[in-house]
Amino acid sequence: MKINITNIYGMSGQSTALIAQNETVKIAKKLDFHELSFYFYNIYSDSQGELNSRLDGVLAKLGYGDIVVYQSPTWNGREYDQAFIRKCKILNTKIITFIHDVPPLMFPSNYYLMPEYIEMYNQSDLVIVPSEKMKERLIQEGLTVQKIMIQGMWDHVHEYPLRQPVFQKKLSFAGSVERFEHISNWTHTTPLDIFSESNQENHNPSVSFKGWKTDPELLFALSEGGFGLVWGTSENPVDEADYYRLNISHKVSTYLAAGIPVVVPSYLSNASFIKEKGLGYVVDSLEEASRLVEETTAETYQQMVENVYKVSYALKQGYFTKKLLIDAVMQVLDI
Ligand SMILES: O=c1ccn([C@@H]2O[C@H](COP(=O)(O)OP(=O)(O)O)[C@@H](O)[C@H]2O)c(=O)[nH]1
Prior knowledge:
Gtf3; binds uridine-5'-diphosphate; EC 2.4.1.-; 335 residues; transferase; 6-stranded parallel β-sheet; 2 domains; Gtf3_C; 12 strands; Rossmann fold; alpha/beta; Glucosyltransferase 3
């Protein structure tokens, strides 16, 4: 019996979906998982026969009774994922569905697809969901799988030599200004560095655009000091779409892996972890975010950096994912 894990290729290197799946596989390989690779393409250009042959190629190494960790979705459309699951079932594999994103919840226009996604999830022996809130939501939608695990945190694996963060009253935001549009209009006291692709001309003196950085560049720049800001797609939390509350944020892990404390909205699904471990501030508005950073003393900052250091080690080594994957496999094996 082998343990396999799916992966995706062919998307833009700036796609967080691709980064998250690739990173999970990098960690899983350290645990001797075998990779099943999907290419991102327009599946509607395939006939049924072509799609079938393509999947047979992907599954060539899959053995009867193996375990498959299916990183969901493949982003090739539900028909592709459904065909993949059917093939896994023919080989009597045990399926661990690792839900990264739930397309019917991401965009209201896709909500009608929910029954089909729930049906796919229900074929699993175990489901990994990002948060407790997502678990509750999917159960409401009809999820019946008995074994459900909560992911809670992304890892951010790296071995870059970074700096020792220095106390600065500064915030950094690493995320697309197209998606988090309001962030460029930041008007609060604390200066904000934005790491994003952007063609906007910047006339805002409180904001400094740093451009899109590669992973080592980004982590090095963040490690200089200050705080990492996490915020949803709406400036006002009451307007925030449900999805950001159900998911877990990648940038939280990026900041922590760079060694800096974070400022996160109270609706973030893992806000309580940030609070309990003293990794930064949990706030209800951007005004509060700026105010708390302004009020921070050098001693408080140093204490936070020390707290972050321990979590940072775990994230850099991929411990959250390793633990999750090992626990998931043990559970489907009833050990
Ligand atoms: O200059 C940049 C800015 C962002 N990122 C990556 O993009 C992620 C943020 O993606 P997203 O905004 O989708 O994260 P989330 O909304 O989940 O926090 C970060 O964690 C980084 O890994 C990067 O590599 N370079």
